[in-house]
Amino acid sequence: MPDTPDTPAAGKRRPALQRGLYFEEFDLSALYQHRPGRTVTEADNVFFTTMTMNTQALHLDAAWSAAQPFGERLVNSMFTLSTMVGSSVAQLTQGTIVANLGFSAVTFPHPLHHGDTLYSETIVTDKRLSTSRSGQGIVTLEHTGRNQHGVVVGTAVRAVLVWCLGAAQ
């Protein structure tokens, strides 16, 4: 495409950095939907479970799990939590987070199965400027994970410390 007054010459373009949101940009009225979803495979579950040294037969032993109430192995709930939070990073906290402050109210109301697709979304339930760290604010996020049928498979409330606009280093 030839250069015109509206198209800068090669090498003259302004970089557009992918990042999360600064404190002021978090919107308490928004529903942040994180896409694409993540289809969870048996390999994902076995790898995550063994990598984290979780020897729970419910995640690893198909024969034993077949005789349990769900009749099959279940996806490790820590994988569910990690994927719910991880899927939010690019949209919410990539490069703007100072620290993850903690989790509360983590629930897994329905199991995630091999072959299920996990879709995550986040709402902001609170935000306030930090009283001890100038140029930073605390944002409370409520993450929800749903399977491909819309069934809630996990929830978590998370507090994060993020930079304010113009204060990031």
Automatic annotation (TrEMBL):
Annotated signal sequence range: none
InterPro entries in the record: HotDog_dom_sf, MaoC-like_dom, MCH/BMMD
Domain MaoC-like: from-to ranges: 32-145
Pfam families: MaoC_dehydratas
Taxonomy, superkingdom: Bacteria
Family: Belongs to the enoyl-CoA hydratase/isomerase family.
Official protein name in the record: MaoC family dehydratase
Protein species of origin: Cryobacterium ruanii
